[in-house]
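Q: Could you fold this chain for me?
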Amino acid sequence: MPSEKVSFDYSSTDNTLSIKFNGDWRISTKIPQLSEATSQFLAHPDIKNVSFDTTGLSSWDSSLIAFLYKLIKECRNRSIAVQHNSLPEGIKKITTLALKTNNKEVPLKAATGAFLDRVGEGFISIKESVFIFLDFLGDIVHAFGRLIMGKAYFRKDEFMLLLQRCGANALGLVSLISLLVGVILAFVGAMQLKLFGAQIYIADIVGIAMVRVMGAVMTGILMSGRTGASFAAELGIMQTNEEIDAFKTLGINPVEFLVIPRILALVIMMPLLTLYADLMGIFGGFIISVSMLNLNPVEYFNHTQVAIKMNNLWVGLTHSIVFGVIIAISGCLRGIKCERSASGVGEATTSAVVTSITAIVIATAVITFICQVLGV
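A: Sure. Below is the predicted structure, expressed as structure tokens.
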């Protein structure tokens, strides 16, 4: 039970109303209603200022803060100035902080606006993104130059772990998807080739499609969602925790220490994963052709061997190397440049996947066009 009754008194001089707090203002006590205090504003309509007197307080807790917060808000609504100087330092700091927090407004972007304004903002955003990318690419080229000269530093044990994560740990997912892609290609080819009694050419379709493009593309898309997102999240968390700033303070180049090993790991493992995806895709087409289309297994493999040329294999491996560079750079760039917040890490991860997949599709179209022009 409280040792003292809770109350407040009033005194009015000129245009100022002074409110004096008495007693033990705690949650366990019965706090007066706010209407009791605000009724005095109606009784003194000429009030322009409100001050507080806390000499009668014996103790207080958050209940007094809540009461003062509501009272000050009411005064502001009535255009009455509030004087905080007479409050104890602790009460004044907490009340001021509560009022500042409440007054913060989240800036909302207008859903609609002038068309030219939105176009201009879009171009400015694209220009800034291009400059950031070129700056990051320059840092990577410089770091690779130092690596070739033997001056770059990164942990070898971490590099071996990255190789495992980018390679062996992804075999299960690559196996499943590539096998199913081979099955789908065999089914789609069989629907048309059956019309001409040329089902055996399913081996040519599946083999060339997987080795030349599909194996690399499917592996790239899988690694974008798996490894590229992982790189962005890791580096984003490090950026949020100021670990990358700590590297810079210690004189360690974060691009050399964090980005270069990830690029090397993906560039090394992507061709190997692509070769494995090619084999699994051909095997998927083999299963469908032999089990459902009654093709001869030996004849299927002979047709596959004849159809697949070395230039098809080299085109597929070129795709895989380019995709490895794209995925690693996209993930690391989004991670290092992310905002220092939980939402920033999430946006960086999503952006890394979207950027990687979009760049993979564009790179596939460009490489295909170049190969068509060169007759490869």
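A (continued): Residues 202-240 form the longest helix (39 residues).
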